[in-house]
Amino acid sequence: MSDHQPPPGELVGAVIEFLATTVRPALTGYPRFETLIAIRLLQIAAADYERGAELRAREQQRLAALLGHDGAPEALERELVERIRRGVPAGEERAALLEHLRAGAREQLELANPAYLRDP
Questions:
Q1: Burial letters 30-39, b for 16+ CB under 10 A, else e
Q2: pLDDT of the chain along its 120 residues, tens only?
Q3: pTM (2 decimals)?
Q4: Could you tell me if residue 102 is inside a domain?
């Protein structure tokens, strides 16, 4: 990558700022609303670019700990789904499952809409 090219996060941030401060205020009605959606989608994509790999790695670590072995993320997730279909575990295994699900939901919100994680 050239030393003169801004990092992808900055490029996306510049597009978001342009849409939010120049394009959206000039629009009305449905196009204005669609521009807001485009801004949110770009914000989610930027967050995923910056933190997605880290969050997916944490999820894989949690799944491996929960299932007792390592593997490809998709395979671990399928195995967990099958275990849940056979019956929700009890005791400590249930608590670990619930913590995994809570952590996954928190991480999804960190990418999609961090404002939901703030106290009102």
A1: eeeeebeebb
A2: 567 888 888 999 999 999 999 999 999 999 999 999 999 999 999 999 999 999 999 999 999 999 999 999 999 999 999 999 999 888 999 999 999 999 999 999 988 888 888 877
A3: 0.76
A4: yes
